[in-house]
Amino acid sequence: MLLISGAHAHFASALEPQDAASYFYSGGVTPQQAEAYLESTSSPLIRDSEGDHVNSYYYFGTRAGRTLIGLERVRGDDYSQHFSMLVFEGEVLLGYYANIASLPLFIGEDGRLLFPRGSELADVIFLDQDAFPPLCLKGTHCVDWVAVNAVER
């Protein structure tokens, strides 16, 4: 996720949000490109999103040609949050986890997805691994990985 801390905090505070994202962007798919991709492929992740209150995208970074993007949808009269995590390979969506309890905080130096305290993963997940296991966050149900070639192509 685009986190601003340390030496970059004073510089980024003077930037508009879109400029800050560009400053920290290091290649891969941008949130804007992810949104355009999902719209152009009529992805199940954004179907029936016309009534959503919020539809936000988060850039978490890249590793080994893959980009991690988060999608947040806020729906209904109770404003319930729905998070999804998308992995792009180059500019193509490789797959995703839909309706997860929490988005990761960031990608570790070794490519491991790191989640907030209290939302620890049952299994380690690396952005550059070949096969993705179910995402099992502490205290929630497991969510299966959805390979895009099985759903959208």
Architecture overview:
The structure is a single chain. With about 150 residues, the protein is α+β, with helices and mostly antiparallel strands. It is built from four helices and seven strands. The strands form two sheets. Strands 1-2-3-4-7 form a five-stranded antiparallel β-sheet. A two-stranded antiparallel ribbon has the order 5-6. A hairpin with a 4-residue loop joins strand 2 and strand 3. The relative contact order is 0.14.
The major sheet is characterized as: 5 strands, antiparallel
Number of helices, counting only DSSP H or I runs of 4 residues or more: 4
Mean model confidence by pLDDT: 78
User: How much of the residues is beta strand, in percent?
Assistant: 25-35%
Silhouette? globular
Q: Extract low-pLDDT stretches.
A: 1-25
- The number of strands is 7
Compute the CA-based radius of gyration. Answer: 15 Å
Structural class: alpha+beta
Distinctive features:
five-stranded antiparallel β-sheet, 153 residues, two-stranded antiparallel sheet, 7 strands, disordered N terminus, alpha+beta, globular
Summarize the helices and strands and which ones pair or pack.
Layout: H1 8-13, H2 17-24, H3 31-40, E1 54-63, E2 66-75, E3 80-89, E4 92-100, E5 106-107, E6 113-114, E7 146-147, H4 148-151
Antiparallel strand pairs: 1-2, 2-3, 3-4, 4-7, 5-6
Summed up:
The chain is of the alpha+beta class. Helix content is 18%, strand content 29%.
